[in-house]
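Most newcomers find our protein records easier to grasp once they have seen one. Read left to right, the backbone structure tokens trace the chain's path through space. Once this layout is familiar, the rest of the handout is easier to follow. The record below serves as our worked example for the rest of this section:


***
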Amino acid sequence: MTQSALVRIRKARSQEPILRLLAFQLRHHWFCLPLAIARRVLQRELTPAGPAMDLIQLRQENIPVLDIAQLVYGKDRPQLAQSGETNPPATAPEDANLSVQNIVVIDLSRGDPVGLLVDGVPTLKRVRQSAFSPVPPIYVTTHQLRGLSSVIQPDPQMPDSLTQPMFLLNVEALLQ
């Protein structure tokens, strides 16, 4: 390959759209949402296991909070470690702070806000458009996952890339 061909390849990659995502862990998988739909990330004190739906007030607006892990994994979702356990389950995020809950407030397509309980602290990620691909149906069936739009493969050329695949969530599909 000539040097001019390498320059053309690098130039084509630099012109490729880069999407900004809000990434978070749910048990042992990484998920993400487009940053454009995220309104805010909040923390609140952990409460004993309660109903799957709760309400918070943000700027005089009542916002339902959903346990997104229950929606994605179903009733048999992996559990997080309880505070005081000496051996947390392998599915618990390593950096999970068990005294607070992180809530990602997003706007649905019809403009309604909803809060999503997530594990750990969400982070910003930049991903090339070419990193997105369909989720293999056998993977979805085997792991009994719902609401996955696509899978994003790690990109070692991106400075903040993950080391494992991440799934783009379709929250609208989860709520139907």
